[in-house]
């Protein structure tokens, strides 16, 4: 008996490419369910560094897993980010997750936590979510901002109101 499973995976490098692959039914047919997407923010810790990963997955009409993944490597020490730059990227990944979730939900997608298990041999491509942008917030700090109106939070803080 052959236990090998061949995963059909489409790896994309942009949110636009992802949305083109995981699209709605023809002309918004209400009988076709909304695509369900899996969004997972996780980290892979090493001795002195950690990879922070935001992974978005969905299934296209051909039954293939479509995968978009943005990752950043930071300094990591004693189970937490080490230094201002690492701390700001760590916080920024949480903001990126929120921004991406809000953007996708305003586009009509249903977003759930988790991911589809893929073989270790399938690696993501280096990618980014263009609904958000990383901006310098200081000499060693970065932060995430919404790059389009649809990605802005539904409850803006007073600093966000003109």
- First-to-last CA distance: 65 Å
**SS strand fraction:** 25-35%
Major sheet summary line: 6 strands, mixed
Mean pLDDT: 84
Which structural category do the helix and sheet elements fall into? alpha/beta
DSSP E strands, number: 8
Q: Can you give the helix content as a percent range?
A: 10-25%
Q: Which stretches of 5+ consecutive residues score pLDDT under 50? A: 153-162
Number of alpha- plus pi-helical segments: 2
Integer tally of domains: 1
Shape: globular
Radius of gyration (CA) equals 17 Å
Q: Order of helices and strands, N to C?
A: EHEEEEHEEE
Structure in words:
By secondary structure, the chain is an alpha/beta fold. It has one domain (9-25, 34-117, 127-154). It is 19% helix and 33% strand. The chain is built from 2 helices and 8 strands. Strands 1, 2, 3, 4, 5 and 6 form a 6-stranded mixed beta sheet that branches. A two-stranded antiparallel ribbon has the order 7-8. A hairpin with a 5-residue loop joins strand 7 and strand 8. The radius of gyration is 17 Å and the shape is globular. Residues 153-162 have low confidence and may be disordered.
């Amino acid at each position: 008996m052959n236990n090998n499973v061949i995963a059909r995976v489409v790896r994309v490098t942009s949110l636009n490419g992802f949305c083109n692959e995981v699209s709605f039914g023809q002309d918004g047919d209400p009988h076709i369910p909304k695509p369900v997407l899996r969004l997972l923010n996780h980290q892979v810790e090493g001795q002195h560094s950690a990879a922070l990963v935001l992974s978005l997955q969905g299934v296209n009409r051909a039954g293939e897993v479509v995968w978009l993944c943005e990752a950043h490597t930071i300094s990591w020490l004693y189970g937490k980010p080490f230094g201002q730059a690492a701390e700001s990227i760590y916080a920024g990944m949480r903001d990126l997750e929120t921004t991406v979730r809000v953007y996708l939900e305003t586009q009509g997608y249903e977003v759930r936590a988790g991911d589809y298990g893929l073989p270790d041999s399938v690696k993501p491509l280096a990618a980014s979510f263009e609904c958000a942008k990383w901006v310098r917030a200081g000499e060693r700090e970065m932060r995430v901002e919404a790059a389009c109106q649809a990605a802005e939070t539904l409850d803006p803080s007073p600093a966000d109101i003109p």
